[in-house]
Amino acid sequence: MAREQLGICTEANLHSDYLLFNAVEGSESILRYKLARLPQVIDRLAGHFSEALLTSVVAVGSNYWATLYPDAMPLGLAPFPDTQAEDIDLAPVPIDIFIQLRSDRRDVNFIACQQVKQLLGGYAELQEHIQGFRYLDGRSLTGFIDMPANPRGKAKRDAALINHTHQPVFAAGSYLYLQCVNLLLNTWQLLSLTEQEDIMGMDKVSGQPVAADRQLADSHFALLQSATGVSQNILLQHMPFTRGSVHGEMQLTYSADPDVLLQQLLRRFGLMADNASYDQLLNYSTIEFSAAFFVPSISFLELAVKRVSSQLPFE
């Protein structure tokens, strides 16, 4: 049975680090080996600092996958959509390798980041390092409970991880959309409580949806849901960050089905045929960058080293 990367369906942590790399040209063979080793390195640290609950995610950019693993392509893996809704720029960028580290100890995250950088040093160039943190009781910087409709328990795995019967080679893998979103916090804080709740479609204290007669068709909550229950087929994993005067959120959306990711994105940006408008929360944020990835299982990472080096086909 394929072994998934534990950072996909992990419970919430206090701290996170997001490392974005571009590969050095011609380093594919050594990077395959190093990416297969990386979960082992993190697992060893997690065992040493067991109370920290350290996990990792290793993801390969849609633009780089065919270069790194030319003999096996996940169905439907595609670049992040390069489109605009109204005046909202999705800012898609090509990122070769994405590493996420999460734990309940800042110092353990620091050690893990250092080891990742040393492991990939000389073969992948670090483009960005963003640190996230848990805010209050799991809220975004808007003050609202973040991701209240997220699937729980076994439903998380069903939503995020590919079933063996659908894609045997990529079982326990996941498709990932990553967005770095900057919140216009000063503008948001000028709104009244009622205005904020109307935009979010949720009660600010409880996180429950507002009454049906008050729920706007273009509220954040309404556009995260759908008549077909698409929201139950995605797993959100967001965390706030701050850098000087810039405050925002790293938004990670996982799914076992790339079409679900695309539908959810288009619905939020008002690009579906049945949309009334785009998500009104977008009026209070700017997107710094977006990227699409595939998160292979640990089993695939290990198998790829053996298969590619011996020129054997994937089964």
From TrEMBL:
Pfam families: Dyp_perox_C (PF20628), Dyp_perox_N (PF04261). Its cofactor is heme b. InterPro entries: Dimeric_a/b-barrel (IPR011008), Dyp_perox_C (IPR048328), Dyp_perox_N (IPR048327), Dyp_peroxidase (IPR006314). Keywords: Iron, Metal-binding, Oxidoreductase, Peroxidase. Residues 138-298 form the Dyp-type peroxidase C-terminal domain. The lineage of its organism: Bacteria, Pseudomonadati, Pseudomonadota, Gammaproteobacteria, Chromatiales. This is Dyp-type peroxidase. Residues 49-134 form the Dyp-type peroxidase N-terminal domain. The keyword Oxidoreductase applies. SUPFAM superfamilies: Dimeric alpha+beta barrel (SSF54909). GO terms for molecular function: peroxidase activity. Belongs to the DyP-type peroxidase family.
